[in-house]
Amino acid sequence: MRSTDAAEFESVAELMREATLLAVAARRELPAHAIVQKPDGSLVTAVDVALQVLILNELEQRFGARPVIAEEDADSIGGKEDAQAHCRALLRQWRPGLGDREIARALACGGLEGSTRDLDAVWVLDPIDGTQGYVDGDHWCPCLALLSRGEPVFAVNGHPSVLGGVLLVAERGSGCWSRPLKGGDAKRAMVSQAPLTPGEPMRLVAPARATASQIAARRSVGESIGHPCTLVHSDSQAKYAHVIAGLADVAYSRRGNGPGKYVWDHAGAVLLAREAGAWVGDTNEGEVDCSLGRRLGGNDAVICAARDLGPQVAATLAERDIAEGTSRNSAGHGERARHG
């Protein structure tokens, strides 16, 4: 399979910019019947599905058929006739040539399972990460990453709620770049490496709908390393964008007793944050392994930190995992996490 060159990456970035702006516009007239609750209690909208169809069809036209890991499938709004009709109406507006055949193909091709370590190119797509935030008017983002041999090598996330609306783009080894969603010059995104001063609050991301126990747990992380904690509320990969943009110092997602986080919720941000110079790793200071298929089955957490806070936060969360009996990697350190 041929490699992807810089001009092609730029075209993908423009596609994701368009997709983000289309989602912004679609949210202004989002009817209740276009919002569906999945069996696990999470939300999906007709816009999620329409964006996935649009993006995957465009990628196939430009690059040919490639393996895909994507969140949505035919069951996402299957059986919900009003939501399906809204999805088709959006696609007629966005791309008149997309019909039921293209919809079915795009929703059937994203179910890749198993390791990606032997695959040269795999798209990883979450058309709207943070659908609850999308519905509520909070943080959300379309997210696309390209894996090569299980490693993120390109990522582009649209963040309409961060810094007035930005597109974050990174190619491995070339830095992370931020550009206004509505057009303008790109700027290099670089996280601060200046350590916190004594008594300076650590800005830690907490969920927008954080419970009292989640708030207490996050405050204790800052206190455990000798700093008061100021909470910055965000969800989805937007929480990592807050660190990249200098709006927060630390964001993390713990595995707990679950089967592992979904790769589409983290792969792009892992590369974006690393290329911006953030510390990105697990509780044992090992790498975040995106190569295991649909889930990050080998990691206890994804930690993104600026200001040299990564190892301290990792140690604190490792102790918590051990105390709660959820640790899977406390026996030793894996490959060391990298700065950008």
Describe the protein.
The protein is an alpha+beta fold. It folds into two domains: 6-189, Fructose-1,6-Bisphosphatase, subunit A, domain 1 (Fructose-1,6-Bisphosphatase, Chain A, domain 1, 2-Layer Sandwich); 202-324, D-Maltodextrin-Binding Protein, domain 2 (3-Layer(aba) Sandwich). The protein is 33% helix and 21% strand. The chain is built from nine helices and 14 strands. It has helices at 6-27, 46-63, 81-94, 100-108, 131-136, 212-224, 238-244, 267-275, 310-324, and strands at 35-37, 43-45, 68-70, 122-129, 141-148, 151-159, 166-171, 176-180, 187-189, 202-206, 229-233, 250-254, 279-281, 301-305. Strands 3-4-5-6-7-8-9 form a seven-stranded mixed beta sheet, with helices on both faces. A hairpin with a 5-residue loop joins β1 (35-37) and β2 (43-45). α1 (6-27) packs antiparallel against α2 (46-63) and α2 (46-63) crosses α4. The longest helix is centred in the first third of the chain and has 22 residues, at 6-27. The radius of gyration is 19 Å and the shape is globular.
Topology:
Blueprint: H1 6-27, E1 35-37, E2 43-45, H2 46-63, E3 68-70, H3 81-94, H4 100-108, E4 122-129, H5 131-136, E5 141-148, E6 151-159, E7 166-171, E8 176-180, E9 187-189, E10 202-206, H6 212-224, E11 229-233, H7 238-244, E12 250-254, H8 267-275, E13 279-281, E14 301-305, H9 310-324
Parallel strand pairs: 3-4, 10-11
Antiparallel strand pairs: 1-2, 4-5, 5-6, 6-7, 7-8, 8-9, 12-14, 13-14
